[in-house]
Amino acid sequence: MNPVTTIAHALIALGSVVIGLFGAIGRLARFALTVLTRLVRPPYYPAQLAEQMLVIGYFSLPVVGLTALFTGSALAQQIYIGGSRFNASSTVPAVTVIGIVRELGPVLGGLMVAGRVASAMAAEIGTMRVTEQIDALTTLRTDPFRYLIGPRVVAAVLVMPVLVLASNALGVMGGWLLATQRLNFNSAAYLNTTAQYLKWDDVASSMVKAAVFGFFIALMGCYHGYHSSGGAAGVGRATTNAVVSAFILILLSNLIITVIVFGS
Amino acid sequence: MSADITLAGVRKQFGRKVVLDGVDLTVAAGESMVIIGGSGTGKSVMIKCILGLIRPDAGSIRVDGVETVGLRGKALAAHQSRFGMLFQGGALFDSLPVWRNIAFALAGNAASRRAAAIDNLARVGLGADVADLRPSELSGGMQKRVALARAIAARPEILFFDEPTTGLDPIMADVINDLIRTLVTDLKITALTITHDMASARKIADRVAMLYQGRIVWHGPRGDLDTSGNAFVDQFVHGRADGPIKMPVRTL
Fold first, then answer.
1. A189 contacts A147 by C-beta, under 8 angstroms
2. Which positions in chain B touch A131 (Cβ < 8 Å)?
3. Fewer Cβ atoms within 10 Å of its own Cβ: the N or the C terminal residue of chain B?
4. B163 and B45 in one domain?
């Protein structure tokens, strides 16, 4: 093939990808804007909000808590082993609390909730879409954005900081348990050092991250569910896309917040 | 109270596929119009355009003389509040019991809404004993009846029926047809039904129109169905493979 033609084809393919990417970002931004603008105007659905807070928050607590507990323990063990190489094994409580509260608590909590909640939202709303239940809502004088999507987004933003707070506490507890039971740390000294190194800024950044992750988790679940089509296969695709995109947005936004808050 | 509907030159395409290619149709107030046509001819898209769920690419849709294409926000919500719709699969909300499905759009406290739901259940021949069941606990015919009760609960001016007898046995289909005819007459509602079930069309319709390749190719009174002189209608009514309507069937 003519080299000029090959380059032209490559540029066309690249252009299609770029246009597709910007198109997807634009559609998602418009969806998010619609959600936010509808949220501020009545009618409100407090019963839906309460139900979603229960589903997202309370029912996610076991999986988020166990993840934090195990990760905190493993982290303490690794820091102990690594620190022993240069006589710094006493840094276990300080590094564990900073690692858990700043990064692992919110990120692992966010990923676990995304796996559980974004998929469920996409599947539920996607099924409602393909069985015309969303159209039925509209014909019954009910705005799907206010009734279905708004309560899910608000609930996720509100409960994620609480979940992450619990996740942080359990993560630190996991480290403390391992350190005192296996590594012969003194319990009071461990907790004292932990409290000494835990700063308010760390907790605040953790809460901000959690709220942002909650927003992205619900947004991705609702967006992909709302736009699903093509029956059961379409709902399956929506579920997968919701989880993958929520994971990516959580990790990307975590990086951005970390750089902004701790970069300087 | 009922309302008239007028469609003029309504066009809609998805990608390269032209679904509606200039639909012209008038439904008089209080009339029961049935649109017949094969699968994929654009029947569902047409009623979704009238409802404002899909925006047509061109053309005019007037309800009581008021243009509805391009309505947004509160005006669109007010337009949609005039309609009730029976969806093909019922579209009942799985998470809610039957009475909450029926009373979904009704105002008032829980007791009054529940009473209204039970009244509407009675209208479609169901007892109060099903009020607390979930849609998944009902048979297909009962789900259709509950969906019908939900569609009429807010006393709409216009009712749409999307394939009301699909998936039902012939006897239950006849029960649903009778119910639709009775409700349309009693409540003095303008009704638009889309179906490819000719028994249903003959029972429900005052007038019939046939949609083919995105256009209305014939319309007339129900009594003229068998003597329409239209080759498309003749082939469809008699269910013949031979005729001007070609099915895209690939041979092995």
1. no
2. 89, 91
3. C
4. yes
The residue among A54, A131, A140 with the most chain B CBs within 10 A of its CB, best to mutate, is A140
Enter the ipTM: 0.85
Q: What is the rounded distance in angstroms from the CA atom of residue A193 to the CA atom of residue A183? A: 16
For residue A202, what are the domain limits?
46-262
The reply to whether B20 falls in a domain is yes
Task: State the best of B104, B134, B157, B194 to mutate against chain A, taking most chain A CBs within 10 Å.
Answer: B104
Task: Convert the pLDDT of each residue in A78-110 to its tens digit.
Answer: 999 999 888 888 899 999 999 999 999 999 999
Kindly give the pairing relationship between strand B190-195 and strand B158-162. Answer: parallel
Q: What is the pLDDT of residues B2-60, one digit of tens each?
A: 679 999 999 999 988 999 999 999 999 999 999 998 888 888 899 999 999 899 999 99
Cα–Cα–Cα angle for B39, B145, B220, nearest 5°? 45
Contact predicate B180/B152, CB 8 Å = no
The number of beta carbons lying within 10 Å of the beta carbon of residue B163 is 19
Q: Which residues of B are less than 8 Å from A136 in CB distance?
A: 85, 87, 91-93
What pLDDT does residue B141 have?
A: 87
Binding-site residues on chain B for chain A (CB distance < 8 A): 48, 51, 53, 77, 80-81, 83-85, 87-89, 91-94, 104-105, 150, 154
Q: Alpha carbon of B32 to those of A161, B39, B47: distances in Å?
A: 55, 21, 14
Residue of chain A whose Cα is closest to the Cα of B82: A139
CA distance A139 to B162: 13
Residues B12 and B41 in one domain: yes
> Which among B82, B77, B78, B86 has a CA at the least distance from the CA of B151?
B86
Instruction: Provide the number of structural domains found in chain A.
Output: 1
| Local structure of residue A89 (DSSP, 8 states) | G
Three-class SS state of A235: helix
Q: Does residue B9 sit in helix, strand or coil? A: strand
